[in-house]
Amino acid sequence: MRRAALALAAGAVPTAAWAHAFSTGKDAYGAFLEGAGVILAAPGLILPVAALGIALALWRSEGLLAAWLPFLAGGMAGVALAPFAGSWAGLAVIGTGLVVAVIAALVPPARIGPAMPGLAGLTGGAVALAALEGHGWGEVALATRVGILFAANIALATVAGAARVSLERIVHPATRIAWRIAASWVAAILVLSLAFLMRAPGA
Length: 203
Prior knowledge:
Elements: H1 2-12, H2 28-41, H3 43-59, H4 63-81, H5 88-106, H6 109-112, H7 116-131, H8 142-169, H9 173-199
């Protein structure tokens, strides 16, 4: 178990360079897939989304619906502000994900309810900001930006949906505990990722 945890953490460690190099000359579908791949292939981007999905399901059964619009709005704001982002964007997304993961693991849902839509908006914005860090509005195809937002939203819905279904079908305290443990693992990986990122040259 300990070796598995270390292996997961090592695989999630980000590099110092958070800016992604996007191809030019691809058709719209290829650009869309490239954008989606940025989210799905980067642990530093997908883990904060997973933490949010767990937190929303633990909050209430319709938590995803209540926070989806703020998440999408935050993502669109992140896309718009990405040209102004620096290397701090990588720290911001991991820090945001860490806060959400700790909340999901440790804080009773009733206490975090009013804050969940705001946290969803911050997470969506931080993810999009880090994915497009430093790229000007004309440097990345629109289809690529759409792919980034699409993948982030699909990932959120998948995690939140899986957690909700399990909580509703396996009505036992152990189910909720298991998801809190999963959130704590996400938090642990993000702590290690944050430490490596802060030590990396230029971070």
